[in-house]
């Protein structure tokens, strides 16, 4: 028995050669013409460039600053990954918001506040907990 779950439309332009630089210029032009989209792209880029290196340092911070164990570092990574999965699931299930800026701003605060708080915690097991 054969079931079709997804309809794939025919695309006549699929065999045309790619023009990467031309397409990149068109994309940047579209971004800069839409000021709101341009600003959120810049904010997202800055956030990613500043936060992602810190996120990759969680195991090192756990073991060196909080004097934790390898198990605790693994636990932190598992919690971080679970949070990412839950966030992706929420976006997938409820991601049809009219105003998409509100969830983005809320997400920045939901990530930024605990990160800021972790910077003032004492460097021992009490701070880790």
Cα-to-Cα separation, first versus last residue: 55 Å
The helix-and-strand class reads mainly alpha
Number of beta strands: 0
Proportion of β residues?
A: under 5%
Global outline:
elongated
Mean pLDDT: 82
Rg value: 21 Å
> Given the structure, what is the number of helices?
6
**Major sheet: size, sense and barrel closure?**
none
Indicate how many domains the architecture comprises: 1
Order of helices and strands: HHHHHH
Low-confidence stretches: none
Q: Provide the helix percentage.
A: over 70%
Protein name: Major facilitator superfamily (MFS) profile domain-containing protein
Transmembrane segments: 37-58, 78-97, 104-121
Keywords: Membrane, Transmembrane, Transmembrane helix
InterPro entries: MFS_trans_sf (IPR036259)
SSE layout and pairings?
Layout: H1 20-33, H2 35-56, H3 58-65, H4 70-94, H5 101-118, H6 125-128
Fold and architecture overview:
With about 130 residues, the protein is mainly α. It has helices spanning about 20-35, 35-55, 60-65, 70-95, 100-120, 125-129. It has one domain. Helix content is about 70%, strand content about 0%. Helix 3 runs antiparallel to helix 4 (about 70-95). The longest helix is centred in the middle third of the chain and has 25 residues, at about 70-95.
